[in-house]
Design the sequence.
């Protein structure tokens, strides 16, 4: 019997954070994304030290990989000039960050 649930996410590769940081530095939003990633990574590292779990680090990598993956779609949407005034502020949906 396995201790892992069947639907457990596959952890990122050990070098995924370093590879992600390289990609973030090459991105058009590097000036804001790199410091944000480093802040998220430092917070997750502290959480991992206290919890003895790599899950916070894996979550940061997965979140930033998703942001990088959708960035071209967001850029295309913004460049299209579509009216996005009917949108909902993400802070209203997710709440404030701790």
Sequence:
């Amino acid at each position: 019997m396995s201790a892992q649930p069947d639907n457990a996410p596959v952890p990122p590769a050990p070098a995924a954070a370093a590879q992600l940081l390289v990609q973030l530095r090459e991105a058009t939003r590097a000036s804001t994304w790199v410091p944000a990633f480093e802040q998220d990574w430092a917070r997750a590292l502290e959480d991992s030290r206290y919890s003895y779990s790599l899950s916070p680090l894996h979550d940061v990598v997965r979140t930033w990989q998703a942001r990088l993956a959708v960035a071209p779609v967001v850029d295309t949407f913004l460049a299209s000039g579509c009216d996005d005034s009917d949108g909902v502020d993400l802070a209203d949906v997710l709440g404030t960050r701790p």
In short: The first helix runs from residue 16 to 26. The helical segments are 16-26, 30-51, 55-80, 90-94.
